[in-house]
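In this section we walk through a basic example: taking a raw amino acid sequence and producing a predicted 3D structure, encoded as discrete structure tokens. The instruction is simple. Fold the sequence below.
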Amino acid sequence: MEPTGREIAGHAVCVGMWLVVYGAAGVVDAATLDFQLQRQSTQPASTEWVQHGRDAQRTGYQPQAVAHPWRWKWSWNGPNATGGIAAGHHTLPRNVQPITGGAYVFIADGSNGVRVLNKSDGSVARTISPGGNCNGTPAYDTASGMLLIPSSNGNLYKVNPANGTVAGTYNAGSAIVGGVCLINGRAFVSAGSTVRAVDIAGMTEAWSYAAGSPVVTPPSYSASRDAVVAVTQNLNVHCIRNTDGQAKWPPVKPTPNTYAAGSTEADWGWPVIADVHGYVLVRYRLPWSTLWTWSPWPTNNATMRTNLQGNPSQQCLFAIDLDDGSVPFICNVGNGGWGDNDFLPMGPAPCVRKFDNGDEIAYTVCRGDSGPGEDGRADSHFGELMLDSTTVSGWQAGYVRFIDYGSDFGGSEGFAFPPTDEQPFLTVAGDQVLAGHWALGLALQLNDRSASRGTFASPITVTYLSHFVTSQQSQGFSASHYIGTPFGQEPDWRQVPLGFYIYYNQGSVYDSYWSNYACWVVSDGLVLYRSCDSAIIALESGNPLAAGEREPTWGELAEAAAAEEYYRATDNPGAVDRPARGPAIITHEEAWNHIGEVKTVAGTIRYIHNNYKTTCLGFKNPHQGAFAVMIRERDRGNFPAAPEEYYRIGQTIRVTGKIVWYQGDPVMYAEHPDQIEIVHQLARRIPER
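The resulting token sequence is shown next.
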């Protein structure tokens, strides 16, 4: 029979009186498969993830998947022995990925330098602090065993990770942007308005390319063209010959849009090289308003293509030919990201997968929906992006093939993912697609990729693998951190089919330790997950009920409970109610210092937006990075008129309530208008309903 679109990777075993699901891939009828499209990537390759995106092309693809089922091996900067928040927990820099090399896992840790973790158990072998802040992913040179560390002070450090000794330094003149790009014997970095090549043997400059505008992405490297690619603030794409550091072709701006800080930019992205085809894939951030241009986005590729041809400003992902800078086709990928209230950060970069026969495709988050009541905030799906018109019969270059996940494709699951304003970032390992959301880690294995699949009516089928949620509180705590049946993130409910929880009964930990999104890394037999709150979790192949970490002793449990109580009362004030300190009325700039306290906050409204989940009254425009008042959809009926109409930009207000974290910013939730006093009323007033 034909396989269903979704299967849970597991079978039942009886443990005591409990029936638990674990292990084993879903069964698929081989007769339905097109074996030309079922091949696993088996070309010889290092099993290590040694730099941002795994390789110099930033493909985000690991040919060597870790066999499912997985079990919890260790954690760092995450939970304690009882599932609480471990003492010393802190936020990692945005975009950094864990990498591996030899016996170690390396993670950039900002002002703390680089943490060197023992791959076997996650313990800290040493901390390397060469100078400045380490805000970009380092790179590990397998030939020399050296670690290349980028710094905010403009230095690129060559360090021996076995003892932390600095073996060489190169100064790039400005803070280095993002991660190091590493090939045999040479490193590339972006700094200021330059891209630089450094020969790592002597840490000497090979060449420096002047881009004419601040370089806002880390560089990527094409081995087939021996060229380096980076994107500048003015949205230009630069292709640089590695032989002499000169432009291979004049800078190209493929989008008709112009740079606008905070809405239309290339910042926080990275170029991805499709070396078989000789393309670079470049993603741009676009405004929140693009969610509504076609709401929902169409499900037919021909319609998507026609729409983007007629309105090219809506295109967010571009394929650019590395030979001449031309754009060979339109990528049918709609804009999205994670954010709300008129704020949409950079969306996910694609992953490029090369098969052992030379075929090459990309994986991305695409858009399209036809369900009743769907709109542009909820029309995203996982998908394949075609890079030519021959790899899959009947599918043109730039077309997307939908991947089945959740109830959007007619299933009965209690979840549908991902929303367009919550798009996760992707990693691909063999046939496994792994997605990092700010609350969840999603994992699935591709099954039937035959040419007849990929339409919205007949998507590519999958098997569910073990997911992550940040915290759960309804099923008790186990040292395995594993639940083999559907459960979810609590209290900010999002359901998953099975998998691991990081914390027990800790709520929305990510709001207090916001680093924008989670990511997966697959390296040397480990599945590494970096949560949005900056925990690093290592999984390995095995029975998830036989956790790599032993059950704690009673003494360790008591010690962890005491440490958690102290931590929640001191270092993590957002986790508990705290007595109010200082004056009764504070300014919105002072809210950062009063998390967990009930206060009256005064300020002038500078920003109002309703995203149909919450109405935001911001004291700054844009509201990110400042105190804001949030009115949830469920509380709108308590107000005399629609909050976005009742309150107006320019009004001075005082709002009273508890100050808490939301995505790293202080906010206050207003459930009733009595909490908000209008101190200065404008001339026109919206009539009450």
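Looking at the output, two observations stand out. The chain has four domains: 1-81+424-576, 96-210, 212-267+269-345+349-401, 578-680. Residues 1-6, 10-44, 566-573, 683-689 have pLDDT under 50 and may be disordered. In the next section we compare this with other chains.
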